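In the previous chapter we treated chains in isolation. Here, by contrast, the input contains two separate entities that must be folded as one system, with a combined length of 611 residues.
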Amino acid sequence: MTGLLIVDGMGKTFGSKRFLSMKPAYSVTALRNVSFTIAKGETVGVVGESGCGKSTLARCVLDLITPTTGSVLFDGTDLTALDPASKRKMRGRIQMIFQDPYSSLNGKRTIGKTLAEPLYVHQGVKFKDALPRIHAVLDEVGMPRSAVDKYPHEFSGGQRQRIAIARALILEPDLIVADESVSALDVSVQAQVLLLLRRIQQERGLSYLFITHDLGVVRNFCDRVLVMYLGSIVESGPVGELLSNPKHPYTKSLRDAAPIPDVGKRQSLALLEGEIPSPANPPSGCAFHPRCPRASEICLREAPALQATYDQRSFACHNPED
Amino acid sequence: MTLADTNTPQRTRTASLLRLARKNKLSAFGLLMFTLIVLASIFAPFISPHDPLDQNILDRLQDRSAEYILGTDTFGRDTFTRILYGLRVSLMIGLTSTFLAMVLGCSLGIIAGYRGGWVDSLIMRVMDMLLAFPTLITGLFIVAVLGANFVNIVLAITVTILPKFARVARAPTIALKEREFVEAARALGYSDIRIMAVHIAPNILGEVVVLASLWAAYAIRIEAYLSFIGLGVAPPTPTLGTMIRDGFNHILDAPFVSIYPGFAVLLVVLSLNLVGDGLRDAIDPKLRD
């Protein structure tokens, strides 16, 4: 199966190279050798704690942040090697839905203008000619057509997120990167938006890179999942398999930390202690070893490589769970 | 799409303006005053029976009378008429230079803030250099070197207040470029120029307009300074500054020749400051003294 998106060995280091600066240069490695593929029509989830590099990953895939190393192959084209003009053209095919619908829409523009702008920039379509397509996309996300003349502040969070989805859809992209797109919404609205995203996927056959910290959402929405810890993928695989039988201790503790809505099934949990280490000063060996219940001596010295197992699964651990 | 829907943003904007006027009577008064001054200068030929350049040497240095409402100057020209025409020139210079400074300064500030890095350093260090000189000295220098005429005076005032606009535009740009709608614009493949012009500029316009009204008053004052020390628009064209200067020779025997145009400067500057203060309060209640 050839992937729509093939990310290979992507790394991102933020650093300072200040000219004539008195401060010493620092560097933070936000992503470390991340590789994965997304097939057409597939939904890949990315989970992990705050600060593990999920959002950096999303922005690197769109090349909003230029990755330091590695390549992003989208439909056979290496995005990182494109000149700025061709890159801008490609942008229409990968779209992003952001976390906060209150800041992802320009408050000074009407919804109509916001939705017409991509069509004008990429296809030279004038506002009047764009109107039928704007109406169509508003219908698709379940917003009234009268929204065209309104401003973002006249809508609720869930409605705004629908508008943001409409804006991402209007250029008919092949891949949508959703960065915590439902995290800011109420649970009931979350469900509506997720159903909407799934319906659109079925109708248009597009792929999602779905970034979240909510395992419940991943379980119901994604086909495959990548678990990230401190900038690296520590485990990946099909959702059901991975969550029912996690190999990496971090995946297991993530799963166990998710609340179970049934008092009878609750068990005493081995919750993780401590915080995610600073990416500016990562621990030696396996990045997870200071918090790992299964850490052994080798974990302090050597970072485990990601090893593939049966059935599309892979994990990076010296002492995997059984 | 009903009519009510289309009108909503417009209506709320008008309503908030009215609410503002009611809440801040002083600013509303300032706005009224400024409007009247502008109208008076535009319709000067219809208001005054005299010609601003018409000399009547027999009536020189007269105090107020029915014929000459605010008296006459050294050459027997009607002061009231000359104030009206002088306002035209002063307002033209003040508003043109403020507008130019706003457009250029904001563009530079937005580019500096959006691009960051060495572009930011380069632009802002040049602005700092301009700011390091006292405003009047910069203005003086430019006019003295290039010569005193309308274009050069506008240029001089523009250059002196441009860095202030650049600074005011840069800070919110840095905040805005981290907002998700700017990232969304980049994700949609918009060009940097488009992002700066369509997505950032309108969002900082409010703050900039407030300062524009305050600095327009400042620009009119600089014009008066420059004219007063003899670097203004060439006579006989009246400007408020040159009129004050002309009257200065007779400050002891006929003080009114300087005082009335001085009072006109005061009114213009005061009205603009009142408007600016009101706008500032309306936009940022935290700034209220």
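The first helix of chain A runs from residue 54 to 61. Chain A has a mean pLDDT of 84. Compare these points with the single-chain example from earlier in the chapter.
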